[in-house]
Design brief:
348 residues; three-stranded parallel β-sheet; alpha/beta; 2-enoyl-CoA Hydratase, Chain A, domain 1; single chain; 2 domains
Length: 348
């Protein structure tokens, strides 16, 4: 067993803890492998009535995946990136289809791979320190781990805003938008886990719901999302920018500036992936995301984004296009081409 995952059984509750607090609990291949093993074992164990996942430390649930490995694998031309995406995406689908109550405590940073471990489950419980974001376009990539499935289902304006800009949401906004569906103050999380462990959970929602009714509170107040967000429902990224530029509000100007700093090809692929994802099943989305991810390994922007943000940290990427207006439909379509057999499917 990897020390990066801790687990225990409390009564009828299977409890998984991501245990890389110094790395903000970022996911590795071994972590995905162990979580998958536990979920498959527990779904067939009649003594386990629900599963709960959280993160060690007080800073993050999970702030992403092993992006440096993906960068290095792509540069080397080996199979590590594909192997990581395959097991991660299969795990995302396993969570989406899990037959028992799946509960995530998304306190602290929940980004990238951490989103995939949480939003596809039934119970997403936010704590006071919750910071949600899908910041992938800033590294020349796109919001994967099922992001192109759940983001458009928040409403296309909100989904495109989060996917394109990587905007960060606090606990109140995360609950209001529906990413989290329950708020429990952080100082009550240990009590919540203990209560679930003594609730004689039976694999149905009923007894989980009774416990959560005791602990759930009204989320903290938060700033409303401005009306200018309607710009993100336009029919292309250039049109989104035109709409934001014509709005004249401080919020709209900030969003437009943010978009213009991101990878233009990543922006256009993200926009198209969300537009297609709204009409696809979860499995179809995950197969499409695997193709897109593997195709990004052939782009300049994927390596340049990771270099500038995470390796050299000069925050000065040299993107392949100077603006989204330069990105052609043909260039976008190339990143959707079929490159791989479908992701592994776990039977639940």
């Amino acid at each position: 067993m990897t020390d990066e995952i801790q687990y225990r059984i409390i009564g009828n509750l299977g409890h998984i803890t991501l245990n890389r607090p110094k790395a903000l609990n970022a996911l590795t291949f071994a972590m995905c492998e162990k979580i998958t093993e536990l979920l498959l074992e527990w779904q067939d164990n009649s003594e386990i009535g629900a599963v709960l996942i959280d993160g060690a430390g007080d800073r993050a649930f999970c702030a992403g995946g092993d992006v440096i490995l993906l960068h290095d694998s792509g540069k080397a031309g080996d199979s590590r990136a594909e192997e990581f995406w395959r097991i991660e995406y299969a795990l995302n689908e396993l969570i989406h289809c899990y037959p028992k109550p799946y509960i995530s405590l998304i306190d602290g940073f929940v980004m990238g791979g951490g989103v995939g471990l949480s939003v596809h489950g039934k119970y997403r419980i936010a704590g006071d320190a919750t910071v949600f974001a899908m910041p992938e376009t800033g590294i020349g990539y796109f919001p994967d781990v099922g992001g192109t499935f759940f983001l458009p289902r928040l409403g296309m304006s909100i989904g495109q805003w989060l996917g394109l800009t990587g905007a960060r949401l606090n606990v109140g906004q995360t609950c209001d938008i529906g990413i989290a569906n329950i708020y429990v103050p952080t100082n009550k999380h240990s009590d919540l886990i203990e209560a679930l462990g003594t609730a004689d959970l039976d694999g149905t929602d009923n007894r989980v719901n009774k416990v959560l009714e005791v602990f759930a509170q009204v989320p903290p107040a938060h700033d409303a999302i401005p009306e200018a967000i309607k710009a993100f429902n336009c029919s292309s990224v250039p049109e989104i920018l035109l709409s934001l530029d014509s709005d004249n509000s401080e919020w709209a100007a900030k969003q437009a500036k943010n978009i213009r700093r991101k990878s233009p090809i990543a922006m256009c692929v993200t926009f198209e992936a969300l537009k297609r994802g709204i009409n696809m099943t979860f499995r179809q989305v995950m197969a499409q995301e695997l193709d897109i991810s593997l195709n990004f390994l052939s782009t300049q922007d994927f390596y340049e984004g990771i270099r500038s943000q995470l390796i050299d940290k000069d925050r000065n990427p040299k993107w392949s296009h100077s603006s989204v207006d330069e990105v052609s439909p043909t260039q976008v379509e190339r990143l959707f081409r079929k490159t791989a057999k479908p992701p592994q499917e776990f039977i639940t």
